[in-house]
């Protein structure tokens, strides 16, 4: 696709504590994402660990700019650090309107425990590394 | 003769009818009940004004040609007015008001239809119990009035409407003691973006800013674009200034978040001044002046923040203006000095270089802290001249030091903007004879935010000369890790706020470890700034920092003492540790 762009960022979770509030927030984020992204031909993956979101978005440049503008205004997170925003040669998440890494919050919590122990912390990764990680995790998810 | 054929428009009877709602209706319209079967007066069907006649049950009995044209496609006969209007998308309240008009002699209502037409409707009761409605299409008139009140680029209110709205709100405050806050918002760095990336992109950015602004407001708040990159908000709320402070903090955060626009990543900031009525006054001009003073204070505090007006602000601003006057003269009067703080290699304990730091000694004020006068120098536009002076002085004085001892000089973001940086640096080197390899330039993230491509080109040229570049105060700004990849840097200087008490703060320890590891991976050195104790030094050493700078390893000293430090061999951390 001409004009394909990829955007990678991570941000700090600002949803109130408690698994229920998080569950609700993440379901509603994913629901809106899948609905809007399918419409706008945007694909990508979202990952969550107890403190951070990390997301890859790919699609036409204008579409990415529009969805990122909405995401920027979302009060459920803050301190958004943009790691990459650049042309891409092909989609890495072609089949995902918004893949979520970690099937439920509980699983994500469990996952993030091991992830933190293994040193996973999006704030310490470069855009490329974070992107690679999300691709790898999404592939594992798909296999599971 | 035409005169005889056309219904005379200036018939004295009609003029009278216009002035008297009930008396002469029949002279104009005939008796509607009877005329349902009988002939209409000749004037009515052809009148430019749309006319509708209702019977006693408020059902439409007659429409003239103009009225028919207004509601083309609908057969109105037998409907109520409310049904007719709501079928055209009029707001319920407006339609209801129109059809319940009974007791007042004349009711005028403005009705907004779904196709965005605006009608002015006038209802008059007839003596026979029916009603006559005249409808005027005022769409064009209303739209041009609205346009006159709107900023065409963003659709926000313009300065005129802002002022009117403010006067209206202040009237309410005077009557029932509510509270109103005014926020004046200035965008930081917008001009630079507009200049370097072009006006169309600047315009698109302003639209995004105004969308973020309105997104954070309630319906009853007023948002206006007051000038190029200046916005205003009027917020009515019971709890003031609390509500305004919350809003201001939210806007600073929201507007300051990164934008992606036409493939560019853009960082701008918002600085806000707040004032509250009736606390700070009830006069619009006084309040706007207060908000402006508060805005000025917020800018003086380093931008990207807000300030609420306080009494005494005028005095403080007066003091700041006096400081600015003194500051303008300081260079010419030779009141500045440069001192040098040792940078120590952690592995060897030897001094590897010095950072040049400016000092201002004023004959009356005494020493003025750089934290106070550097922002002022930026604000009044003399920072480039001051920085250039420091650079030349540092290069010259470093020549008196032995060997390969380097000197680090701070650059201001402004210097990247004016396009002369490369020339200034090369001329300082050639005038003093200092080898480029002994000069290190310290930049802050602020410099990298604007127009990265131009900055990147300058940094590359500087490095091509053999000059080293370090990132100062790392961790205090956007700290976007992408900068570390994108820009050619030799060193990261970790801000002192992460070093203080690092031996008691595991969070800081982890952060410093992560930054040091990242820097090592990218082939950069790391300096821990502000090391004050042995315990802090041991921590940053074990976390992998390669250099330290701070009171523990040496305070800033004049150039001559710096030279003495080097020759006495009393150097660095290991000797201190062994004491
Ligand atoms: C971490 C995070 C990621 C999000 N990702 C997306 C996304 O990929 N697509 C999307 O449309 N909205 C996303 N949102 C939600 C948007 O901020 C916004 O709520 C949503 O687009 C509004 O859509 P609606 O108007 O259709 O309800 C995300 C929000 C958060 C906090």
Automatic annotation (TrEMBL), chain A:
Pfam families: BLUF. GO terms for molecular function: blue light photoreceptor activity; FAD binding. This is FAD-dependent sensor of blue light. Gene3D superfamilies: 3.30.70.100. Residues 4-99 form the BLUF domain. It comes from the Bacteria.
UniProtKB/TrEMBL annotation, chain B:
Residues 1-41 are annotated as: Disordered. Residues 320-570 form the EAL domain. SUPFAM superfamilies: EAL domain-like, Nucleotide cyclase. Residues 178-311 form the GGDEF domain. InterPro entries: Biofilm_reg_signaling, EAL_dom, EAL_sf, GGDEF_dom, Nucleotide_cyclase, PAS_4, Rev_trsase/Diguanyl_cyclase. PROSITE patterns: EAL (PS50883), GGDEF (PS50887). This is Diguanylate cyclase (GGDEF)-like protein.
């Amino acid at each position: 696709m001409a004009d394909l762009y990829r955007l990678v960022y991570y941000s700090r979770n600002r949803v109130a504590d408690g698994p229920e509030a998080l569950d609700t927030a993440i379901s509603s984020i994913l629901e809106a994402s899948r609905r809007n992204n399918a419409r706008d031909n945007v694909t990508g993956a979202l990952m969550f660990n107890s403190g951070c979101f990390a997301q890859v978005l790919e699609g036409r440049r204008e579409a990415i700019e529009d969805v990122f503008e909405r995401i920027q205004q979302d009060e459920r997170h803050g301190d958004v650090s943009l790691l990459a925003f650049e042309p891409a040669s092909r989609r890495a998440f072609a089949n995902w309107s918004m893949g979520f890494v970690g099937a439920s919050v509980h699983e994500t919590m469990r996952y993030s425990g091991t992830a933190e122990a293994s040193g996973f912390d999006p704030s310490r990764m470069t855009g490329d590394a974070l992107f690679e990680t999300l691709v790898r995790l999404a592939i594992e998810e798909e296999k599971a | 003769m035409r005169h005889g054929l056309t219904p005379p428009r200036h018939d004295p009877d009609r003029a009278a009818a216009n002035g008297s709602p009930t008396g002469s209706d029949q002279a104009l319209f005939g008796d509607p009940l009877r005329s349902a079967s009988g002939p209409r007066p000749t004037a009515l069907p052809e009148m430019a004004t749309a006319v509708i006649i209702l019977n006693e049950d408020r059902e439409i009995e007659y429409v003239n040609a103009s009225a028919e044209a207004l509601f083309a496609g609908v057969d109105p006969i037998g409907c109520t007015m409310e049904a007719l209007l709501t079928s055209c998308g009029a707001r319920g309240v407006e339609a209801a008001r129109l059809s319940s008009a009974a007791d007042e002699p004349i009711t005028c209502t403005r009705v907004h239809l779904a196709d965005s037409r605006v009608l002015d409707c006038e209802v008059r009761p007839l003596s026979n119990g029916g009603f006559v409605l005249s409808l005027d299409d005022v769409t064009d008139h209303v739209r041009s009035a609205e346009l006159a009140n709107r900023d065409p680029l963003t659709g926000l209110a313009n300065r005129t409407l802002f002022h009117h709205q403010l006067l209206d709100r202040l009237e309410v405050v005077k009557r029932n003691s509510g509270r109103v806050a005014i926020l004046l918002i200035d965008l930081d760095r917008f001009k630079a973006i507009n200049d370097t990336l072009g006006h169309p992109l600047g315009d698109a950015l302003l639209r995004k800013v105004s969308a973020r602004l309105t997104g954070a407001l309630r319906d009853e708040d007023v948002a206006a674009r007051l000038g190029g990159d200046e916005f205003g908000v009027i917020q009515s709320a019971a709890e003031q200034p609390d509500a305004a402070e919350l809003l201001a903090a939210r806007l600073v955060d929201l507007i300051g978040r990164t934008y992606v626009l036409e493939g560019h990543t853009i960082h701008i900031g918002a600085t806000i001044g707040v004032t509250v009525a009736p606390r700070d006054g009830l006069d619009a001009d006084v309040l706007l002046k207060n908000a402006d003073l508060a805005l000025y204070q917020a800018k003086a505090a380093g931008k990207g923040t807000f300030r609420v007006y306080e009494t005494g602000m005028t005095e403080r601003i007066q003091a700041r203006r006096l400081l600015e006057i003194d500051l303008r003269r300081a260079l010419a009067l030779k009141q500045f000095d440069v001192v040098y703080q040792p940078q120590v290699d952690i592995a060897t304990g030897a001094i590897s270089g010095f950072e040049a730091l400016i000092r201002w000694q004023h004959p009356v004020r005494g020493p003025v802290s750089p934290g106070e006068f550097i922002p002022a120098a930026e604000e009044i536009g003399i920072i480039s001249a001051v920085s250039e002076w420091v650079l030349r002085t540092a290069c010259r004085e470093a020549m008196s030091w032995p060997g390969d001892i380097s000197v680090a000089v701070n650059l201001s973001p402004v210097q990247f903007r004016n396009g002369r940086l490369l020339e200034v640096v090369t001329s300082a080197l050639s005038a003093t004879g200092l080898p480029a390899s002994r000069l290190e330039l310290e930049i802050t993230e602020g410099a990298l935010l604007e127009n990265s491509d131009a900055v990147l080109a300058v940094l590359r040229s500087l490095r091509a000369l053999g000059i080293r570049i370090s990132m100062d105060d790392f961790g205090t700004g956007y700290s976007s890790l992408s900068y570390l990849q994108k820009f050619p840097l030799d060193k990261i200087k970790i801000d002192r706020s992460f070093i203080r008490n690092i031996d008691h703060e595991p969070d800081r320890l982890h952060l410093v470890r992560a930054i040091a590891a990242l820097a090592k991976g990218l082939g950069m050195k790391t300096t821990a700034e502000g090391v004050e104790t042995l315990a802090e030094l041991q921590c940053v050493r074990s976390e992998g920092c390669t250099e330290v700078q701070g009171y523990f390893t040496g305070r800033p000293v004049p150039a001559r003492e710096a030279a003495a430090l080097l020759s006495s061999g009393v150097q660095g951390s290991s000797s201190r540790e062994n004491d």
